[in-house]
Amino acid sequence: MAAKEDYAARSKERRRYIRTETSVPMTIYIKQDDAAKAVNANTRNISASGSMLEVGSKLPVGKEVRIEIDAPGSANPVHCRAKIVWAAPIPNTGRYHCGIEFTNIEEDNKNTFLKFLCDVIYKSGGI
Hints:
It contains two helices and seven strands, in the order H-E-E-E-E-E-E-E-H. With 127 residues, the protein is an alpha+beta fold. The protein has a single domain, classed as predicted glycosyltransferase like domains (Thrombin, subunit H). The protein is globular, with a radius of gyration of 16 Å.
C-alpha cells in the first residue's frame, strides 16, 4: 500500500497555475560582460509563473535574464525578468527546449501580461 501512496505523491502536478500551449515570439536578453546577447525564442506553453520555450541554442541554467514577450494584440511587448530553470536538447534538431520562471513583471506591463494570458487560456478552452 505504501508504494501506491508514494507513487501518487510523486506523480501529482506540482504547478500552481494552468499551463496553456501556445506559440508566441519572445526575445531573451542574456547579460554577457558589459553587453546583452539577444536570443529569439518561441513559447511552447505559458502560465502565470513561467514558460517552456524553444530556442536555437542551449541557455545557461540558473541565469537571470530579461525578456520581451510579443503579446498578440498589444501595442508594445511585455517586459519582465526571468530565471532559466532547465534546458534540454530536442532530439535530431540542433534546437533546445528550456523552462523559465518569471521573477518580476514590470509594473506597467502586468495588466498587458494578464490580458494576454487570459486570452490564451480562453482561446485554448481552459476556461
